[in-house]
Recover the amino acids of this structure.
């Protein structure tokens, strides 16, 4: 008699034991894997005419996964990047099951044969100084919500924090004494400390006055902790307001992460070395931070301006070998 391996206990172990205890993945990653299964399992159950608790491991096959990925793109309008994220979660689940149940190694190979789609990397959006100033000045400082919005935007620009990091920031994480600073909890529980401008500290002080250290710094209009989705809505609203004075802003795909990119680019232009920027943003690899040197056209233009165009190739060799601008130019690429 063939043994039926029901999927439910494996899903339980995968979400509550493997991702949390064994891998210690970031909460956002855990939620992403969970959300994938929230979409995928009802799709499989509906396709097979089964209830969720009756689904077996064998009910998940490569063809079903391909149909699911196709639905994500065509019916839900998901991007290729999102499609690949969902597939990565299903790959991880299949690997988890087969590593603990050798009978399903061939099943794993079938699922792992589904490839990720290639996708082009979108251009990184960041703001020039006047655009960032317009965004910071967009909130109405005559209203309490406007003052909160301004303080939050200024904090994001100053610290380069992710939306999730700002949302979970508590009063205890702030040190507004001279010199002011903030402690941020990043991806994978990595902690970093960033300096704050006196102006930022002065805008944050009224928000936390008379409140307990464990309370979140940023609250919504209902006096509840603001979420990362609330921060995104705030940025979108501020961009719309700023676009009335600076129409060019409306043509840029600006998000909360764009402000983080802006922080990095402006630090780089100010002469801050790339390794310090890596620590400032909480990047694990320096390769991640190097993208800012690649996209900043202003720095490339300055480097190019330092290098006169020689009249002949022979002169060019001598010019480049003796010109210290070569190193500057190469670093800016």
């Amino acid at each position: 008699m063939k043994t039926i391996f029901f999927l439910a206990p494996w899903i339980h172990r995968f979400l509550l034991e493997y991702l949390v205890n064994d891998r210690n993945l970031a909460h956002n990653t855990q939620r992403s894997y969970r959300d994938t299964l929230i979409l995928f399992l009802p799709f499989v159950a509906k396709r097979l005419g089964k209830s969720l608790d009756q689904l077996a491991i064998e009910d998940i096959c490569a063809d079903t996964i391909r149909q699911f990925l196709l639905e994500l793109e065509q019916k839900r309008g998901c991007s290729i990047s999102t499609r690949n994220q969902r597939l990565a979660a299903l790959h991880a689940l299949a690997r988890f099951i087969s590593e603990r149940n050798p009978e399903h190694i061939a099943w794993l190979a079938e699922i792992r044969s589904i490839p990720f789609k290639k996708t082009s990397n979108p251009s990184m959006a960041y703001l020039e100084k006047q655009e960032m100033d317009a965004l910071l000045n967009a909130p109405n400082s005559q209203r309490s919500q406007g003052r909160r919005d301004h303080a939050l935007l200024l904090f994001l620009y100053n610290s380069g924090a992710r939306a999730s990091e700002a949302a979970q920031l508590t009063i205890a994480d702030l040190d507004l004494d001279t010199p002011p600073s903030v402690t941020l909890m990043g991806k994978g529980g990595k902690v970093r400390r960033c300096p704050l401008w006196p102006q930022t500290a002065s805008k944050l002080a009224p928000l936390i006055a008379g409140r307990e250290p464990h309370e979140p710094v940023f609250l919504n209009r209902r006096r509840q902790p603001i979420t990362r989705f609330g921060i995104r809505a705030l940025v979108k609203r501020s961009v719309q307001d700023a676009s009335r004075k600076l129409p060019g802003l409306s043509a840029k795909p600006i998000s909360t992460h764009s402000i983080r990119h802006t922080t990095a680019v402006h630090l780089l232009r100010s002469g801050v070395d790339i390794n310090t920027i890596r620590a400032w943003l909480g990047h694990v690899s320096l390769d991640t931070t190097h993208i800012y040197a690649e996209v900043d056209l202003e720095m490339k233009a300055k480097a190019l301006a330092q290098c006169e165009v020689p009249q002949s190739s022979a002169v060019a060799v001598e010019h480049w070998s003796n010109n210290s601008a070569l190193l500057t130019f190469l670093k800016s690429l």
Summary: The chain has 17 helices and three strands. Residues 308-333 have pLDDT under 50 and may be disordered. Residues 50 and 241 are 50 Å apart (CA to CA). The first strand starts at residue 174 and ends at 175.
